[in-house]
Specification:
By secondary structure, this protein is α+β, with helices and mostly antiparallel strands. The radius of gyration is 19 Å and the shape is globular. The protein has 5 helices and 4 strands. The longest helix is centred in the middle third of the chain and has 27 residues, at 38-64. It has a 4-stranded antiparallel sheet, with helices on one face.
Length: 153
């Protein structure tokens, strides 16, 4: 057992109630059931995962067509979350700024993975572009992201 001198992370403990409420509302809306067992929690997790994969597929398919983009990770949706790291021939810092000006929120940097990026021969000054979303991101938001990438690469 790990001892934390400051005690539990009170922000995380306080957030648990909100997470439970969200899952309960999600289950009631999408599964017509109360959040009453591990199977209903698994049902919510499965729906979230399926939606994230559905949103992720067009982005990965687009990235496959770009020879000047290096994807860190797999082009497959299985066993991955919708957080994608890419390296471009263009300045990643400049590209992130251009996409943000289109109201497409992406980040550029090392994301606390300096040693990993160095091992992958990524220039730490440029870092990677991180493209991430979750199950409630709209399909049109993903299309806007793809369009912005296509326009600025």
């Amino acid at each position: 057992k790990r001892f934390t001198p400051a005690g539990p992370d009170h922000a995380q403990v306080a957030a648990l109630g909100g997470v439970y409420d969200y899952y309960e509302a999600f289950s009631n809306h999408h599964l017509d059931s109360k959040l009453s067992s591990s199977s209903s929690i698994n049902g919510v997790n499965d729906l979230i995962s399926k939606q994230e994969k559905k949103l992720l597929k067009p982005l990965l398919d687009f990235l496959k067509t770009k020879k000047d983009i290096r994807l860190l990770g797999s082009y497959e949706t299985e066993n991955r979350v919708p957080t994608v790291a890419i390296v471009t021939k263009k300045s990643n810092v400049v590209l992130a700024k251009e996409l943000n000006e289109l109201n497409v929120s992406v980040g550029a940097g090392d994301f606390y993975a300096v040693r990993l990026l160095q091992a992958l021969n990524v220039d730490i000054r440029e870092g990677v572009i991180r493209l991430s979303f979750v199950h409630y991101t709209s399909g049109s938001d993903v299309e806007k992201l793809i369009s912005g990438l296509d326009r600025h690469l």
